[in-house]
Amino acid sequence: MPDLLSARQTGIDSRVVNTQLWALAAAGTVVLAAAGLEAYRAARARRLAAGTTSAPAAEPYILYFTGDNCTVCRTHQEPALAKLGSVRVDKVDAVAERELADRFHVYTLPTTVVMTADGRALHVNYGYAPANKLDRQLAEARSGLTLEQTATA
């Protein structure tokens, strides 16, 4: 049976097609490796944060890691946190409080950590987290779900 789209009949050099396929495969491999690395980093941060505790509180609260030069913190994250109402938000300067920031592997600002009332880290959000996401995570913290039952990066 003849090949309906033969490269020779259409004038396409098979070496060019072969090179393009290899380039596509290489790009796909890089994308998959980056996604896998990010998934590993998020899972590791969740595991490490699970053992991190602080003083108990009456309600779940948020640790908010920020910095002096963080524009996204001021323009996006702080208004989102203000929408949460009376939720306790502990603002942490990630540079001045480097030891605390290292415990949560904070390398991106803003970073928010949803803490349960008994002082355990439940969710770690690297980068901007919208108010509805934080509200949902606080509701999970109020309902008593554990870190193993949730999947947040």
The CATH topology of the domain at 50-149 comes to Glutaredoxin
The amount of beta strand, in percent, is 5-15%
What distance lies between the first and last C-alpha atoms, to the nearest angstrom?
A: 52 Å
CATH superfamily of the domain at 50-149: Glutaredoxin
**What's the helix count?**
5
What is the H/E string? HHEHEHEEH
CATH architecture group name of the domain at 50-149: 3-Layer(aba) Sandwich
- Any idea of the CATH class of the domain at 50-149? Alpha Beta
Radius of gyration: 23 Å
Number of strands: 4
Describe the strand arrangement of the main beta sheet, using strand numbers: 2-1-3-4
Overall body shape: elongated
> How would you state the average pLDDT, rounded?
84
What level of helicity do the residues show? 40-55%
Q: Biggest β-sheet: count, sense, barrel?
A: 4 strands, mixed
Contiguous runs where pLDDT drops below 50 for at least 5 residues = 147-151
Structural class: alpha+beta
Topology:
Layout: H1 7-10, H2 14-50, E1 61-66, H3 71-82, E2 89-93, H4 98-103, E3 111-115, E4 121-126, H5 131-143
Parallel strand pairs: 1-2
Antiparallel strand pairs: 1-3, 3-4
What features would you highlight for this structure?
153 residues; alpha+beta; Glutaredoxin; four-stranded mixed beta sheet; 4 strands; 47% helix; elongated
Provide structural commentary.
- The chain is of the alpha+beta class.
- The protein contains 5 helices and 4 strands.
- It has a 4-stranded mixed sheet.
- It starts with 6 loop residues before the first helix and ends in a 10-residue tail after the last helix.
- Residues 147-151 have low confidence and may be disordered.
